[in-house]
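Predict structure. Chain length: 327.
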Amino acid sequence: MINRRTVAELEALFNSSLNKQSFSGYPKELYDPFNYILQLTGKRIRPIMLLMACELFGKAAEEAISQAIAIELFHNFTLIHDDIMDRAPLRRGHSTVHQKYTETSALLSGDAMLVYAYRYLVNVNSSQLALVISLFNECAIKVCEGQQMDMNFESAQVIKAEEYLRMIKLKTATLLASSLKLGAIIGNALLADADHLYNFGLELGIAFQLRDDWLDSFGETQKVGKQKGGDIIQNKKTFLFVESLNIADEHTRQSLLQLYSEQQRNSEEKIKAVLSIFYDLNIEKTTEKKMQNHFEAALQHLQFVNIGDNEKKYLNGLAHDLIRRDK
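Prediction complete.
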């Protein structure tokens, strides 16, 4: 039986392994953006959870490193394309790929990352190959569906809370869930256990995004590390906005819609006005409750995984950290 490693140990293992990979070639304009975004180190949550899931069932994380790299490459491919669609200037505090290079180079580099992801993904036992590819393909399609829903929401005035939750389930939670199930498959888990880990990831991913939405409006600016109300300034239709429209009276609904239609208004005034509506509607507590419900559902699925609680302690701890985080 292996000694299961902590988050910090698996993060170090993953970063060391990723840094040893060579993503270079001709023309350099294709590979420079590729390497640039990988150097903007993010949380590495998805590859770490994949490695944790593998070790959960007694296999060393090193056996799943290739698939962890595949997941990280796919994740960064989606970020490059998302930033282009959102016309975002910054990513992780630095210029986005299309801003630093060109939109064309960013698109091509993102496409190349997707192909490289498959290169790493298929480095698996032949008996697991079909299942691994099928899971990854299904995940990729769902992420694209979620992104299209998100884009559709930009021009939609009224969105049901259920539609928003479905969107974040597809766009955000599915990749987290698939990472866990991939790790479980490589760790030779029983299908029932792999499925419970997948559902754990789905619920955790939804709670994770709801926490993100909450932090933007109610987090402490110094801890969050970015301007409070950034989503409000950009008119992003988060759960807070969607739920407010669903429960507000007609006068408040029209006021909120008017605020979200404005592009040139003073940012501080706009944030203050929107937050006032959120507070009046008790959206802070509503969002916290919704997040907690999904988090508890996630923990229930983790409990169903037929492994001792002591073996699951690091994964359980990471899940709690993600929901308690203040940035």
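Summary: Residues 1-123 form a domain with the Farnesyl Diphosphate Synthase fold (CATH 1.10.600.10).
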